[in-house]
Amino acid sequence: MKPTSRTVRIAVTASPIAADRPHHPHHPHHPDTYEVLDRAEIAEVLALWPQDEPHDDFACMCHGDGGVSLYESGGERIRSAMPTGPLRPLFDPLDPAGLPARHRDRWAAAAPAGLRAYAADLARGTVPAPPSGVPSAVVFGWLGAVREEPRDAAWLLADRAPVRLLAGRPTEELAWAVRETDRTGLEGAVRFFASEEFTTRHPKRRRVPDTARDLLLRHARSHRPGDLPVLERRLLRAPEDRIRRS
Hints:
Layout: E1 9-13, E2 33-36, H1 39-48, E3 59-60, E4 67-71, E5 77-82, H2 99-109, H3 116-124, H4 136-144, H5 155-167, H6 171-180, H7 183-193, H8 196-199, E6 207-208, H9 210-223, H10 228-234, E7 236-237
Parallel strand pairs: 6-7
Antiparallel strand pairs: 1-2, 1-4, 3-5, 4-5
Helix pairs in contact: 2-3, 4-5, 4-6, 4-7, 6-9, 7-9
């Protein structure tokens, strides 16, 4: 068995595309690190991975200081390298057939219906205007569905795109959406209300009615205890919870 055939995870760090090109201008939302876990994508990389000793067009990264690293199931690193030649397009953030573009496209396709066009624009590297008519509860659900680990090449988009939409919305609208969303949406709501986009608001804009506040604290206490202290400090009580469900 070839050593590389034991690969179950590929970690990519510090974009392996030519160091003489500035990193972020490749794609404004391309992360510095991401992972490849899809078996078909791993097989595609391994099919192009040089099996012989490194030579002139294959720069060895034996100490793991960047490039692409192969890992086995026990977490041991098998080999690290800065790929060139036929491997290069697979990791180019701008190549539409490359792994980063595929990850972004899959993320965009999985967006809620009203947000799919917005997500597709972000996946292509543009910064579109926020879509209108999409309830905050839907955006909470979009954020809550994001798995924080593992991280593929679309994780920055998946994390920041919903937060970017929510950041511009008034607290009153967000608080009402907390009442309307489901469990996945509550996950996203807790993440947003514990984020800098909310916690740095002026105190008057951090006042949340008791109903929404209690829902957020209860979910954080059960599912995101790390966020609980932030919510307890930064979620201020509204003078009166005037909006009641019938």
